[in-house]
User: Which sequence fits this backbone?
């Protein structure tokens, strides 16, 4: 191994540039080779899949696995990060079709890598999300010729997301069906997603397992008097335990309209701090419908990318509101359950399977969340602490990254038994 390799920074973290035929990834064909396709890459800057791949490599225990990770990038690089070999794929500016191009280009690169190294046995190609279904039959034949297996994370009902036009939603449905049909194994990060694919695509007799998304269960490293935190609170006119918190993408399926409307109906004197990006058209639509700017308790406070600061904000919230109803295990929910003691969740299968009896639930029916907020406002500190302790215990037992990575390593190392 060449110890003098150049070190550069990507997304604020150090990575080692790898030269052709000069890395620890050459001559290790006897290890289980796992090719991960579909995330934007690591080091992670944001995103659920990106964080998953970062933690999968960071918490790796078994040295018999060698990870290869495709990454979006204009520069043609091979580099090492968290012990994984990363390679960049450039994508032309072709709009939403770019995601399809990216997955296909990355898959082509991984297959070519294996063809050049006939010593690799039983490679695992793990594709995150169902973007390339119409093309997967061809690639499955290539994978079979290599003696490899195709694993797929079906993500969560992408065809339901309102951001997509009707033709794109139709494509997502077709693509999902094809990916399920040709996958040797579906790794679902939600029990409800697993049930869905097994029922909807039972004619394909899908081979599916459940492995949840993971989370770090710890409080912020920042002290209570941290200057960044105190300045942020003062700038947003918020006080400790005097606000409910919402964190998530500003899209209709996350039910911001319901949460804001119901909060405005409630009697609480606390604020509603909303950490999100701004979708201008949706924001204007909600302004016209709700006139929320007339309620001083409703505060859009922008985005927070500093993870320690975000943890501190969660830690000091009185309660957390979660309205996501599309997708699998949501990272924001896991972090809330691991930090915030009082969590008020939309009552859908995805959320209930994660939190079980460690949270309070509301429905989209009129008055449900408003009355729940009023009840939560007067809960005893003892009852809130009991909920928080139960939630943290559940997160540590079933959703810690150590536990999740161990489950993944077992699956990857059993590739010989998949088909």
Assistant:
């Amino acid at each position: 191994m060449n110890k003098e390799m150049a070190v550069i920074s990507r997304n604020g973290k150090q990575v080692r540039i790898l030269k052709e035929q000069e890395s620890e990834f050459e001559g290790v064909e006897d290890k289980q080779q796992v090719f991960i396709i579909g995330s934007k890459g690591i080091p992670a800057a944001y995103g659920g899949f990106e964080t998953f791949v970062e933690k999968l490599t960071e918490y790796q225990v078994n040295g018999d696995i060698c990870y290869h990770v495709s990454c979006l990038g204009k520069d043609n690089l091979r580099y090492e990060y968290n012990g994984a070999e990363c390679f960049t794929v450039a994508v032309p500016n072709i709009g939403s079709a770019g995601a399809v191009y990216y997955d296909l280009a990355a898959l082509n690169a991984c297959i070519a890598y294996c063809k050049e190294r006939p010593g690799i046995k039983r490679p695992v190609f793990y594709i995150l999300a169902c973007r390339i279904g119409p093309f997967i039959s061809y690639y499955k034949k290539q994978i079979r010729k290599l003696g490899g297996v195709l694993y797929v994370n079906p993500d969560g009902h992408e065809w339901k997301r309102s951001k997509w036009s009707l033709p794109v939603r139709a494509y997502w449905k077709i693509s999902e069906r094809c990916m399920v049909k040709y996958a040797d194994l579906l790794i679902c990060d939600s029990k409800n997603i697993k049930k869905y694919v097994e029922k909807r695509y039972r004619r394909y007799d899908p081979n599916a397992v459940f492995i949840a998304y993971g989370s770090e269960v710890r409080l912020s490293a920042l002290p209570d008097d941290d200057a960044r935190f105190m300045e942020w609170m003062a700038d947003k006119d918020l006080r400790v335990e005097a606000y409910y918190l919402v964190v998530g993408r500003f899209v209709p399926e996350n039910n911001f309209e319901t949460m804001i409307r119901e909060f405005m109906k409630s009697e609480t004197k606390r604020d509603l701090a909303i950490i999100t990006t701004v979708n201008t058209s949706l924001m204007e639509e909600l302004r016209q419908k709700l006139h929320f700017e007339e309620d001083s308790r409703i505060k859009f406070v922008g985005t927070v990318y500093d993870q320690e600061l975000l943890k501190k904000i969660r830690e000091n919230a009185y309660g957390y509101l979660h309205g996501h109803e599309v997708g699998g295990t949501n990272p924001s929910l896991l972090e809330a359950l691991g930090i915030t003691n009082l969590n008020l969740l939309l009552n859908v299968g995805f959320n209930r399977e994660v939190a079980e009896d460690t949270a309070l639930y509301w429905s989209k029916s009129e008055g449900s969340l408003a009355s729940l907020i009023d009840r939560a406002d007067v809960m005893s500190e003892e009852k809130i602490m009991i909920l928080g302790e139960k939630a943290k215990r559940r997160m540590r037992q079933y959703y810690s990254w150590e536990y999740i990575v161990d489950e993944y390593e077992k699956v990857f190392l059993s590739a010989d038994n998949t088909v």
